[in-house]
Automatic annotation (TrEMBL), chain A:
This is Acyl-coenzyme A synthetase/AMP-(Fatty) acid ligase. One of its GO terms (molecular function) is medium-chain fatty acid-CoA ligase activity. Signal peptide: none annotated. Gene3D superfamilies: 3.30.300.30, N-terminal domain of ligase-like (3.40.50.12780). Residues 70-266 form the AMP-dependent synthetase/ligase domain. Pfam families: AMP-binding (PF00501), AMP-binding_C (PF13193).
UniProtKB/TrEMBL annotation, chain B:
Transmembrane segments: none annotated. Gene3D superfamilies: ACP-like. PROSITE patterns: CARRIER (PS50075). This is Acyl carrier protein. Pfam families: PP-binding. Residues 3-81 form the Carrier domain. It comes from the Bacteria. The lineage of its organism: Bacteria, Bacillati, Actinomycetota, Actinomycetes, Propionibacteriales.
């Protein structure tokens, strides 16, 4: 661990070295522990303490629904939400050094992928000193990528901004001398629109995009706004690691990277319109067995003008609202739990600044007169702000074709 | 294609805030940060405008700019309709 690297919490301005964070850790817990946190900084003492042992999973509290909590407890995890600790229902000893990430499976339910700090650290060699902005949701693969940079590579300081505070990231970035920023294309679109004038003051040397499809428009706008910065995009996931890294400022990757065997490098393929990766950076499955072979990523890919463009999820359950992950199924379940709602369908709708917004179609129960605004207010009391359906269309009856679907 | 004028967009902006129990100030120079009008609210307003005009707004046409006041929001949404 690089104990002297700094971590700065943009929300409070508090700063600490990793060594100090490790001292705040209560020491390794004997049981695997899932930490559900509102803010990135809350998870870092446990992360810093991993050097002494323990097994952990970090998740944004907005993503932890009741069934997932029960699933984790049954898999041996104590679930910590703030000061509330719910013991595992099937206790087992911690596997020291094991780090679990959650991803969306092909059915749309999150599944666990096992890593260690070593397998999460994909940066090798020396890096120029940088101060990185980390705007990601706690516990995601991208979050771990930035966190392990700070934890393991000399001269890499972090400034943590939580997804809920992203409207105001430029001011703390200027204040704390951020020189490198990793963010989703949505994050960058929002930034370019909202902070156009202030951006020129940032002295960025490295801009990285990932986590969503990266289009040419956003790459070109960034190159124009930050002529001194290298603009890179990365395709990475908890299952296949950082498999594609592109520095030429263009969307997609060259088609001749497909079906190429290079020792130590991922093998990339497109099968039936889906990106398939055979990676040396695999994690393990939930049982701890090494993942091997080709992974169907669930991401759509198409070839255009000599480039392979990765265009989006084949499975639409997981919505990305300005960097925060929302399960459409979980929101639908909540709406359908309202006593005056008969049916609901939830989906993402393209929107400026946040990329996608949660919207819903709802059918009210017989003899009731609940309105769209009533439901929005009701949902706002029960969901994180980004998960609240802002546009709800009240339908007179359940669409016939929808009754044939088993899921959103 | 139908377009919305500035007062019509202002009315929709008021509706976005009203659901949250907030009131839109009369002064176009009021800062968004001061009235609690955030990215999600802006996005919702854009969807309301799209639903009214029956067309998708093209934000790529807006270029680099800062959006800090009520007037900035209204200017932008008036400008990009039909582009």
């Amino acid at each position: 661990m690089i104990g002297d690297n700094l971590v700065i919490d943009a929300g409070t301005g508090a700063r600490a070295t990793w060594r100090e964070l490790a001292q705040r850790s209560a020491g390794p817990r004997k049981s695997p522990t899932a930490y559900a946190v509102e803010r990135s900084i809350e998870a870092l003492p446990a992360v810093a303490g991993l050097a002494d042992g323990g097994e952990l999973l970090v998740i944004s509290s907005g993503r932890l629904d009741e069934s997932l909590a029960e699933e984790l407890r049954a898999a041996g995890f104590d679930v910590a939400v703030g000061d509330d600790l719910r013991a595992a229902t099937s206790p087992r000893p911690a596997d020291d050094g094991r780090v679990w990430l959650l991803t969306s499976g092909s059915t749309g339910r999150p599944k666990r992928v096992g890593h260690t700090l070593e397998t999460l650290s994909t940066v090798t060699g020396e890096l120029a000193p940088r101060t990185w902005l980390c705007p990601y949701s706690p516990g995601t693969y991208a979050w771990w990528q930035v966190v392990t940079l700070g934890l393991g590579v000399p001269g890499q300081d972090l400034v943590l901004v939580d997804p809920a505070d992203l409207d105001d990231w430029v001011s703390p970035a200027l204040e704390h001398g951020v020189t490198a920023v990793s963010g989703t294309p949505t994050f960058w679109r929002r930034t370019l629109m909202r902070h156009g004038a202030d951006l020129q003051k940032l002295q960025l040397k490295q801009i990285t995009l990932g986590g969503e499809p990266v289009d040419q428009a956003v790459l070109s706008q960034l190159s124009e706004a930050f002529p001194d910065a290298r603009v890179s995009w990365i395709y990475a996931s908890s299952e296949v690691g950082a498999s594609i890294v592109v520095h030429d400022g263009r969307a997609g990757f060259p088609v001749d990277w497909l079906d190429r065997d290079v020792p130590g490098r991922p093998r990339l393929a497109v099968v039936d319109g889906e990106l398939v990766i055979t990676s040396p950076h695999h994690g393990t499955d939930a049982s701890g067995a090494e993942l091997a072979g080709a992974v169907r990523t669930g991401d759509a890919a198409r070839i255009e003008d000599g480039r392979v463009l990765v265009t989006g999820r084949l499975d639409r359950d997981e919505l990305n609202v300005g960097g925060s992950k929302v399960s459409a199924g979980a929101v639908r379940d909540l709406l359908q739990s309202h006593p005056e709602v008969a049916w609901a369908a939830v989906r993402g709708r393209k929107a400026p600044l946040v990329g996608t917004m949660v919207v819903a179609d709802v059918v009210a129960g017989p003899g009731t007169d609940v309105s769209a605004d009533d439901l929005t207010r009701w949902a706002a009391e029960r969901l994180p702000e980004y998960a609240v359906p802002r546009r709800i269309k009240m339908l007179a009856e359940i669409p016939a074709k929808e009754t044939l679907k088993s899921d959103v | 294609m139908e377009t919305l004028d500035r007062p019509a967009i202002r009315k929709l902006m008021g509706e976005v805030l009203a659901v949250q129990g907030k009131t839109l100030p009369a002064d176009d120079a009021a800062k968004l940060a001061d009235i609690g009008f955030r990215s999600l609210d802006f996005s919702e307003l854009a969807l309301r405008v799209e639903d009214e005009i029956g067309d998708e707004l093209n934000f790529e046409a807006a270029g680099l700019r800062s959006i800090e006041t009520i007037g900035d929001v209204l200017d932008l949404l008036v400008e990009i309709q039909g582009q």
